[in-house]
Write the structure tokens for this entry.
Amino acid sequence: MGFYSDTIVPRLVTCACGTKPILKQREKIVPLATGRVLEIGVGAGHNLPYYDSRQVDSVVGIDPCTTSWRLAQPRAKELGVPLEFVEGSAEDMPLPEATFDSVLMTYSLCTIPDAHAALSEIRRVLKPGGRLLFCEHGEAPDPSVARWQARVNPMWSRILGGCNLNRPILSWIAEAGFSMQSFDQMYLPGTPRIAGFNVWGSAQR
């Protein structure tokens, strides 16, 4: 870890994750969270304004980056339900099993080094019948776009703190043992196609 990864990258990611098209995606998925909620990669708190406090009891946000959490404080103060921050990795969460009704994951699976371990951990901490709510960018279905994603990904990942352009999100969620309830997908308007293919939905433990 150094100045760039500790200080510059969190601000770059915060800026990229707060664009209008991405905020519109958050608005679609975050209000579906209910009960006790775990948010994976809470970061600078871009999701916090979209929780429905009438159907959420509490939120636990996990993130390895304390710099991002400091950037989240203005949003955290407005949440309206109990909020706890846990510093740590989604690949090995210091949380008991079968604890949460909902796990929310937005624009995080692209960056987690071992995404399969993270999905296994998410399934572990969800209650039976609990839901994984996700909104992620990933591998495009168009071969020409996918080829460019593969070419650009090594440099993109180095610049943006390990973010990957071409992970097969739906396949990995299914492989982790989740039952897909619903999903939708599209290229985000106003976003480069190599980074703009989004998939979002709900999967049940």
Summary: The mean pLDDT is 90. Residues 122 and 203 are 11 Å apart (CA to CA). The longest strand covers residues 126-137.
